[in-house]
Design a protein that fits this description.
265 residues; alpha/beta; Rossmann fold; 6-stranded mixed beta sheet; binds adenosine-5'-triphosphate; ABC_transporter-like_ATP-bd
Length: 265
């Protein structure tokens, strides 16, 4: 269980996140929604301590994450993997090596520095690529892949970290509709198959409603909605998005039902 207690973050005189409280059971797929500047990224970044809270606490399985320092903090960051909009791959390195970077916390420093990956680590990385249906790309340079393929490599990299939580910060913002589905399907499958908690910032309300089992809506740093997608009616969407609501509210883009987690390159 992830518990967020009275979490705030101030930048100068602006409260980016203001006194947020949440309880997220393990294995949830939570969509964090709201207009630009609402505080979504800041909230996610605080969970893995890329941003420091000004006030409040974050607890994971009862442990106070906000108090972690040094090695314990590095371990937490490995268990709390991030997926970014811009993939953050090393373009000149091949796909397999990019995924192996996710194993850094599991191997001795001298081996990772010399890139002496064990057969076991390679097998784990290949297996993650297979799970994402891109094992055939293992030897290609990352910069030669499409955006959707690169995001799947980034997700494979998080998988080999063996995380408890995946924090996905606008993971589909730079993808076309087809790749959007492929990447969201992958996150949904990981959440379901491995019981990994996924917190996913999304601009598209349609995608959030179609894929997430819970939506958390932020407005100017405040929590203004927390509930299942069906409970987000037009009035709630209007409170979240204001004048943008008519653009934001549309039919939900549902994960495919017949073969919900089919992935195609
Ligand atoms: N490092 C920073 N320094 C100063 N202000 C910041 C910093 N990071 C975020 N902010 C401010 O905090 C507020 C929330 O930003 P945040 O990036 O969390 O919002 P967001 O909902 O993720 O927006 P977007 O959807 O555009 O990414 C914004 O007003 C932003 O300008």
């Amino acid at each position: 269980m992830l518990i967020i207690e009275g979490l705030s973050r101030r930048f100068g005189d602006r409260l980016a996140v203001d006194d947020i409280c949440l309880e997220v059971p393990r294995g949830s797929f939570v969509g964090v929604i709201g207009r630009s500047g609402a505080g979504k990224s800041t909230l996610l970044r605080m969970v893995n301590r890329l941003a420091e809270p000004t006030a409040g606490r974050i607890l994971w399985e009862g442990a106070d994450i906000t108090a972690l320092r040094g090695r314990a903090l590095r371990d937490w960051r490995a268990r709390c993997a991030m997926v970014f909009q811009q993939f953050n791959l090393s373009g000149r390195l091949d796909v397999l090596t990019n995924v192996l970077v996710g194993r850094l916390n599991h191997v001795p420093a001298h081996r990772s520095l010399l890139r002496l990956w064990s057969d076991e680590d390679r097998a784990i990385a290949l297996s993650a690529l297979e799970r994402l249906d891109i094992a055939n790309l293992a030897s290609q340079r990352a910069e030669h892949l499409s955006g959707g393929q690169q995001q799947r490599v980034a997700i494979a990299r998080t998988l080999v970290q063996e995380p408890d939580i995946i924090l996905a910060d606008e993971p589909i913002a730079s993808l076309d509709p087809r790749n959007t589905r492929v990447v969201m399907d992958a996150l949904a499958r990981i959440c379901r198959d491995y019981g990994i908690t996924v917190l996913c910032n999304l601009h598209s309300l349609d995608i959030a409603r179609g894929y997430c089992d819970r939506l958390v809506g932020l407005s100017a740093g405040h929590l203004v909605f927390d509930g299942p997608p069906d409970a987000l009616d037009d009035a709630a969407a209007r409170e979240l998005y204001g004048l943008e609501a008519e653009d934001a509210v549309g039919p939900a883009v549902h994960a495919p039902q017949a073969s919900p987690f089919a992935l195609h390159a």
